[in-house]
Amino acid sequence: MTASFKRIDYSLRPAKHAERRMLCDVFRRLKPFGRVEEYVYVGFGSIWFADFTLMHRSLGIKDMISIEQVETARERIEDNKPFRIPVDYRQSKYALLDLDWKRKQFLWLDYDDPLSVNILLDLRTVVSRACSGTVLSVSVQCSRAPQYAEAEQDTTPDAPNAVDRFITVFGRQRVSPEVGAKDLVGWPFGKLSRAMLIQEIHSELAIRNSSHADIEMCCRLICEIEYEDGAKMATISVIFYSPQDESIMDQCHFEGLDFMPITATPIRITVPKLTGREFKRLESQLPLAHDGQLVLGTIPAADANHFAKMYRYLPNFAVLEG
Amino acid sequence: MSKTQVIQEIDAEPTKGFFVEMLTRDIGLEQAVLDLVDNSIDGAKGLIGSGEKPFEGRKIALEFSRESFRIVDNCGGFTSEAARTYAFKFGKPTGSPRTPHSIGQFGVGMKRALFKFGHQFSVRSATIDDAWAVNVNVPEWETQSGWRFPWAPFVPDENVSPTSPGTEIIVRELRTEVGLKFSTKIFENAIHQLIKSKHRQFIAGGLEIKVNGHHVDATSLYLLVSEDTSFRPGIQEFVIKDDSEEEIKVRIIVGVGQSSPPQAGWYVVCNGRVVLEADRRAVTGWGLIEEQSKSVVIPNYHNQFSRFRGIVTFDSNDSVRVPWNTTKTDVDQDNPIWQKTFGRMTELMRPVIDFLNELDADIDEHTREHSPLLAYVSKVTTVKAEALPTTSIFTAPPRGSLYRGPKTVKIQYAKPVDEVRLLMKELEVSSAKAVGEKTFELIYESMVGE
Question: Which of A177, A202, A209 lies nearest to residue B192, judging by beta carbons?
Fold first, then answer.
């Protein structure tokens, strides 16, 4: 698999930008657990380090670690590091083992690839070690499962179908009996990926809590996000906390975040297609008064509504023409 | 008794706590759940109908969560006499009544599961003319002397009553690790899949099983059988009488199915209960080496055998005779019934292995798209294992006998990734293989013409 930084220019992904800022806001809410600056931020910085820049500038996070599996990109990465960020040039399966798990972490494991067993095993590494107050966010690509593509391309007679291939890779325990080929492509695959990430976390947590030696650890789902900047992506964000810290967790009041949906549906980030003038026009009316309605003029309603929900997180692009 | 006499005796009375602990370590959590399902099925066997769906109308429902475990069935229940004299006894007393062809044996499944799951259990059962209940708080019971359980009042409801005979078992105050496991979706999936495969035969016979509200669908094993006689599985049936004069009926089917690695291997079924599935270990003959000659008689399993299907079924009135182990998770290799059968299994296995090797060689020579033997196999119809005849000799067309198209030869080479990627884009194809084929076609056309 080609390193994604060779295929996608991260700096031009508006929905990803919004997601980054949303997760930064989630991070900000962890204050009741202690000073946010004392958390360690762990991510897959790639060569752009966009999330690291945001976390450092916005929240003052000083302890950061980037994990990068493409060893051959080392020189280019060292050249591009915006701040003094240690980079662990190993695959996540090894790098995650060596983090300082006594400290509270904010991990954003932003995989470029669709769900795989390696990703699920990485989750188990985190879940079995996380201390109270640690937040884990995981992003996976969900345009379609590789097994779906394989099955499509394999026209040999009698080739196994997509679901069988999927079960062969993940094992029957991970795949509910209701899963069909339709769940391996598009947003349904996003939903399946999120469910499988969450069920893996619960399974490992059950194992962790079975041995009475460690303190019991609980987990709560903070949010689920979906967006499409070219490829469809799905993200989950969970927080681990001990029962004694439940009141602290309640004080974080994640439900109060602007972008949180009222019902527990995934947050779909849609970047509205508006002109610069239309941006300004809508912005000047926001935040909306309690019973307020947006004055739209010629602006399409759907785009305007998306904008109203997301405006604080969307990027402003400016093309400077010299 | 004088004091000196007392001192000279050693108190070897078993403690309840020890017994409970040993009993419960014997078996995994999933198997313990399956044991309870097996008991319900044994009840159902007593109410069996006829025809294709003898278990039609019989239902079993399982519900489990962090807090509790519940299994309820309408499979006839068992009498207070049975409860009083052997169902709750640790170990089956001699002379206890036997369900013919039962799958719960050794008298241990229910007790083991109850104690393994938690600290408080209730069992209620009703037959058409009897009803009873037992409620036990295990920690309290452990402190009392004597090995008895008191009766509790029976309260009929829509699930269990003399008009709807069946059994309901509930366990509460689950052990921590058990409750945690019960609460995960992964465990639920595991139980669902296990029931689907282990109780396949009964579900196909009309038995309805639900796991946490999800219905377990029927599945069948399919083998390739041609309408003419060119492709047939190998099938043998015979009866073995062991030293107890009890008869054990054995049926062996060996053949070819669709290419599916998860399904390939041996299936061993005892009294209808699947014990092994898709087994590829030495236990079922894989990797067998002939002692004297050191030649490999049966190879180890490889994916080229992904079409292999072997099914061996044992049936006996006395469930102790069939060659499974006490946890129904494997065969008992020391059992003489198994040993006799094993020889026949390997005999029937060899021609199928030879055929699959031939198929693999044909694919290697002609590629998957052009192999005549693969093309033939892909067109053969599939038949459910249950619908196969009593005997058959494995038959398959020899490799050379099928019509061949123009001979092909494989070309393989490696080129830099960037170059291949560029051509993929330019030629608008989506794989390296397609690039190879397309570039060949284009050059051939330009050099040789149509």
Answer: A177
B108-141 tens-digit pLDDT: 788 889 999 999 999 999 999 999 999 999 999 9
Q: Which one-letter DSSP state was computed for residue A309?
A: H
C-beta separation of B306 from B358 below 8 A: no
CA distance A168 to B188: 18
What is the Cα A179 distance to its own chain's centre? 23
Cα separation, B447 vs B9, whole angstroms: 102
- Across chain A, how many H-helices and E-strands are there? 11, 8
For the question of whether the overall pTM of this predicted structure is more than 0.95, the answer is no
CA end-to-end span of chain B, whole Å?
111
Taking the CA of residue A5 and the nearest CA in chain B, the distance in Å comes to: 15
Task: Answer whether the bond into residue B397 is a cis peptide, omega within 30°.
Answer: no
Those residues of chain A whose CB sits closer than 8 Å to some CB in chain B are: 153, 155-160, 164, 167-168, 172-178, 195, 199-200, 202-203, 205-207, 209-210, 212
**Considering CB atoms only, which of B185, B378, B379 is closest to A199?**
B185
A287 upstream amide cis, omega within 30 of 0: yes
CA distance B177 to A211: 8
Q: Which residues of B137-150 are buried (b: 16+ CB within 10 A; e: fewer)?
A: ebeebeeeeeeeee
pLDDT per position as a tens digit, B231-275: 999 999 999 987 777 889 999 999 999 888 888 999 999 999 999
Structure tokens at A177: 């009996």
Q: Which of B399, B360, B367, B352 is nearest to B257 (CA)?
A: B352
Phi, psi of B65 (to 5 degrees): -155, -175
Residue A314, number of CB atoms within 10 A of its CB? 20
Contact B193 A168 (CB under 8 A): no
Residue B75 corresponds to which tokens in the numbers above? 């499979």
Please judge whether B193 and A178 are an interchain contact, meaning their C-beta atoms are less than 8 angstroms apart. no
